[in-house]
Amino acid sequence: MIALLGFGKTNQALLKYINAQGIGCVISDDAFQEESRDEFGNIFTQDFARFETTMQIPSPGIPPYNTMIKQSSNLVSEYDYILSQIHEKQIWVSGTNGKTTTTEMLEWVLRDFGGMSGGNIGTPLAVLAEYKPRIWILETSSFSLHYTRRVSPQCYILLPLSEDHISWHGSYEAYIRDKLGVLERMSEESVAFIPKNLQSHTRGFKGRVFLYEDSKDLADAFGINLEKIPFKEPFLLDALLALCGAEVVCGQSRVEAIKDYKIGGHKIEEFRDSRGRLWVNDSKGTNADASIWALRTYKGRKIFLILGGEDKGADLSDLFKEMQGEDIEIFAIGKNAQKLQELSKEYSIPCKVCGVLHKAVESIHLLHSQESVALLSPAAASLDQYASYKHRGEEFVRFVQSLG
Fold first, then answer.
1. What mean pLDDT is reported for the chain?
2. Which string of DSSP letters, residue by residue, matches 52-99?
3. In whole angstroms, what is the distance from residue 7 CA to residue 371 CA?
4. Boundaries of every domain in the chain
5. Are 309 and 285 in contact (CB under 8 A)?
């Protein structure tokens, strides 16, 4: 039998995939109140270690210090289990910010070549396998990379890194190692796009590497005219990486194909209230680097900034350094609100602790004008108060629209 550790969306799909192969599973999850079995002979329990299993497949988000991981003798990732049986081309996309946009852009420009996306956000690999894509485009988290030891892609796209998920990985250095470890397994025919400041991690890489510092580096390397790309930073870099990766895999320029792509919601998404004042929903800005990009978009204007949530132990000092000397007021919400207030005092930036989002919106409402910008870019995850960043963004828009 195979043990599945955790029973979220990924392992729910994986269970059906494994059962279709005639293999039974022991599924272990703290949410199970009592032990049970289903019609396929699968066992649902809190304690998988009592059963003899040949391998243990963790849900990607389960941290390495979890008891179930420590009890495992043969950890195998979802990637290793499914992709070892796949022979089609694969593009993996990772990094701190921009993974989802770059993945979506790749799927958009490669749809005529049989490209389909899945992975970290979207379609689980076990479901994607049913569609039999000719090109697998996988948004790949540091969690998945941590547990993956066998398989590797033909093309690996790594966006710039900044501190994220530090409490999960244990340190920023460990986070970087997990992001770059895949290079050791990639073949001589493979291609990788790696930020130039991580060049030292590419020494053992056998394939072809493109080191980049910015969008211009990529445009120059592939002869792409930046004037033909209809996006501004940070989305311009996402587009360049998608176009370069697509050309490597399909052998054709896809610049024309990307022009019709539309940026998804909750990413520097502008809207106006009944008074015509500008509000910006950047709820997907879940770390400091993302919020820095959002602030630079409105540099030189008065900004009312909503920060806060679960910051995953990240160092936010670079974000506060970015705000120094600018006309910015912070409205702190969520789990790390007190931490934000302390940092604000240290960097002499005005800060009001609001605790919850609707109070922050109401406070900004009293100060906001036609010339200022009200920006939700929390530099933190949402799960301390919301089901997802999407839920948080939707509530933000709803609160603003309900203002008098």
1. 95
2. --SEEEE-TTS-TTSHHHHT-SSB--HHHHHHTT--SEEEEEESSSSH
3. 48
4. 2-76, 80-258, 269-401
5. no
251-259 contact pairs (CB < 8 A, 24+)? 253/222, 253/224, 254/109, 254/110, 255/224, 255/225, 255/228, 255/229, 257/108, 257/109, 257/112, 258/105, 258/108, 258/109, 258/229, 259/228, 259/230
* Dihedral over alpha carbons 271, 276, 277, 283 (to 10 degrees): -10
The alpha carbon of residue 276 and the mean position of all alpha carbons in its chain are separated, in whole angstroms, by: 32
Residue appearing with tokens 């003899």 = 52
Closest Cα partner for 30 from 13, 43, 45, 15? Answer: 45
Matching CATH number, 80-258, of 3.40.1190.10, 3.90.1150.10, 3.40.109.10, 3.40.30.10: 3.40.1190.10
For position 118, what pLDDT does the model report?
95
pLDDT tens, residue by residue, 218-230 = 999 999 999 999 9
| pLDDT value for 387 | 94
- The predicted model scores a pTM of 0.80
Q: If we measure between CA atoms, which residue out of 93, 95, 91, 98 comes closest to residue 115? A: 91
Tell me what the mean pLDDT of segment 237-266 comes to: 95
DSSP, collapsed to helix, strand or coil, labels residue 375 as strand
Architecture field, domain 2-76: 3-Layer(aba) Sandwich (3.40)
Neighbour tally for 225: CB within 10 Å:
8
The pLDDT score that the predictor gives to residue 165 is: 86
263-281 CB burial, b ≥16 within 10 A, e <16: eeebbbbeeebeeebbbbb
For β-strands 208-212 and 115-119, DSSP reports them as: unpaired
Closest residue by Cα to residue 357 from 377, 338, 339, 329: 377
Element containing residue 317 per DSSP (H, E) = helix 317-323
For residue 212, is pLDDT > 90? yes
Q: How many CB atoms lie within 10 A of CB 163?
A: 22
What dotted CATH number matches 269-401?
3.90.190.20
Nearest to residue 126, comparing CAs of 2, 252, 230, 244? 2
